[in-house]
Amino acid sequence: MTTLADPPVREATATLRAYRADWVHFTRWCADQAVSPIPARPEVVASYLRSLTEFAPATIRRRLAAIGKMHRFNDVAWDVRDTRIRNALAAMVEQVRSPALPPGIVTPDMLRAMVARCEEGARGLRDRCLLLFGFAGALRRSELVGLQVEDVRIEPAAVVLDVREEGGEQPVILPLPQDRALCPAAAFAAWQQVAHRLTGPLFRGISRGDRVGGRALTPYAVTRILQRRALMAEVPPDTVARLSAHALRSGYIMDALRRGMEMDALCRHTRYRDPRALRPYERQLADE
Fold first, then answer.
1. Is residue 194 part of a domain?
2. Which of 86, 105, 119, 278 could form a disulfide with 124 if both were Cys (CB 3.0 to 4.6 A apart)?
3. How far apart are the C-alpha atoms of 183 and 60, rounded to whole Å?
């Protein structure tokens, strides 16, 4: 029998679970940035808040509250009234209230420019492979960060990815272009030369000392990589701000529609079972 006390108990449990998830999200962001999550400097918290472009104001405020609760729980100084934190929070809330611009996509020209800016160190080699795999495979963010080294097979005319799905795996074929700069096989081979891994996550975090870690990238890290490489390629900042981890997949789909790729073939390549899922892209293309 339900009592009056039950709803608050359930709410408290759900709130604690949300705070825990918020704290994990913040600590992973800090790990990607190589900064300390606790004590968190005000400028770090402000940067984190400004990175939450895909979230609603309520989620952003709750994540800020979770950071504060963890500091207070550990008896660490915390001042949510710091001007840098308050200004970042206000900017994010105002941004959500403004009319939303369409999500950014990575065009073939952008991809070429971004790949060209990838240096020869571990970070650049990883990012080049990630960009080319993500675009050519029209990979979802979960598919991209979920790739394992053993999921990649190099064949004479293509790279074959075994993309993991519920109920099994699906091969995704990346044809090899004549332009070596955009060749996913060459990018994979170069990345493997420094990653030195035969199994486990394909795309891993890299320390400031250029050491390849053991953990897979998070979807947010993919967004950050895209935005950093786009800025390096001199993509306009307003376009960069609208890029997310989905921009590689949507960029491939838009380019395929422009090239007149048959719908059945596009559905197979993008793992869409229903062609109606492509209608938003067709409408976006018609509005250009």
1. yes
2. 119
3. 39
CATH code, 14: 1.10.150.130
pTM (predicted TM-score): 0.68
* Pick from 230, 204, 213: nearest CA to 147: 204
User: Contact at 8 Å (CB) between 212 and 175?
Assistant: no
**Counted domains in the chain:** 2
C-alpha torsion sign, points 35, 38, 39, 44: positive
End residue of a domain, out of 40, 67, 97: 97
C-alpha distance from residue 283 to each of 23, 276, 278, 286, 287 (Å): 38, 11, 9, 5, 6
Q: Going from the first residue of the chain to its last (288 residues), give the mean pLDDT of each consecutive group of 10, the final group possibly shorter.
A: 36 71 91 89 93 85 93 91 92 70 87 94 96 96 93 94 80 91 95 93 89 89 92 90 91 95 93 89 82
Residue closest to 85 by CA, chosen among 101, 63, 107 = 63
DSSP string, 159-209: EEEEEEETTEEEEEEEEPPS-GGG-HHHHHHHHHHHH--SSSBSSEEE-TT
| Same domain as 151, residue 28 | no
Q: Are residues 125 and 241 in the same domain?
A: yes
- Report residue 135 as tokens: 């675009």
